[in-house]
Design goal:
binds uridine-5'-diphosphate; nine-stranded mixed β-sheet; Carbamate kinase; two-stranded antiparallel sheet; 9 helices; alpha/beta
Length: 238
């Protein structure tokens, strides 16, 4: 199967967890550099790339709410965590020589541009990697949903979800050796089997907009570029 046949523009979702590397919290500099090098390779191949970064390595609204924090307030804090990650990713990309812009869904004019859809498109047409920060700008959402939303708005050919494993499995392959990896799934299969890929809001949004989702292992060096050529392991959802 071709992952992203002749993709012209793609969105890569990088979770906060991916940025931790082997750590338990925060950002691992080597991991961010490696991911940035992979993004740089795809960007310099002529594909327009935009990114949505998560914040779960720093703060999650839901976790805070479980300990008694107001959910919406916790979610706003979580969105700010994604801005921290966005700045780290921007820095790593610029050291790779990639022109970038951070666009934040929450106005933070001293450090990021406000998110303006047409302006984001223009940046990408000029070869800049746009990093979308602060999720959707709304509490009760996730950065997975933000990724599906921005990918639809940017008219991306596909949404790539970089995870800790090389695709979608029937169970967690790190815990269950019998877990089976799927090559291909439909949106409805993901929802009906409650597969742990992206939340239901993100899957539904992708489905409504016929946006293919490609799940691959972000920790394998070069995997992003290989998947763009239809090589290596991944799961395609459409
Ligand atoms: N968040 C939010 N609205 C959004 C995106 C994110 O409220 O549109 C908050 C939410 O609290 C979430 C946190 O930001 O827990 C970090 O994002 P997420 O958990 O999606 O990051 P990831 O799991 O990708 O690291």
């Amino acid at each position: 199967t071709d992952a992203a046949p002749a993709a012209r523009r793609v969105l890569l979702k990088i979770s906060g967890e991916a940025l931790m590397g082997a750590g338990q919290y925060g950002v691992d500099a080597n991991t961010v550099d490696r991911i940035a090098a992979d993004v740089a390779a795809v960007s310099s191949s002529g594909v327009e790339v935009c990114l949505v970064v998560g914040g779960g390595n720093i703060f999650r609204g839901l976790t805070a709410a479980a300990r008694g924090m107001d959910r919406a307030q916790g979610d706003y804090a979580g969105m700010l965590a994604t801005v921290i990650n966005a700045l780290m990713v921007q820095n790593a990309l610029e050291r790779e020589g990639v022109p970038t812009r951070v666009m934040s869904a929450i106005h933070m004019s001293s450090i990021a541009e406000p998110y303006i859809r047409r302006r984001a498109v223009r940046h990408m047409e000029k070869g800049r990697v746009v990093i979308f920060a602060a999720g959707t700008g709304n509490p009760f959402f996730t950065t997975d949903t933000a990724a599906a939303l921005r990918a639809a708005e940017m008219d991306c050919d596909c949404l790539l979800k970089g995870t800790q494993v090389d695709g979608v499995y029937s169970a967690d392959p790190r815990k269950n050796p019998d877990a089976e990896r799927y090559e291909q799934l439909t949106y409805l299969e993901v929802l009906a089997r409650d597969l742990n890929v992206m939340d239901a809001a993100a899957i539904s949004l992708a489905r409504e907009n016929r946006l293919p989702i490609i799940v691959f292992n972000i920790h394998e060096a070069g995997a992003f570029e290989r998947v763009m050529k239809g090589e290596g392991k991944f799961t395609r959802i459409e």
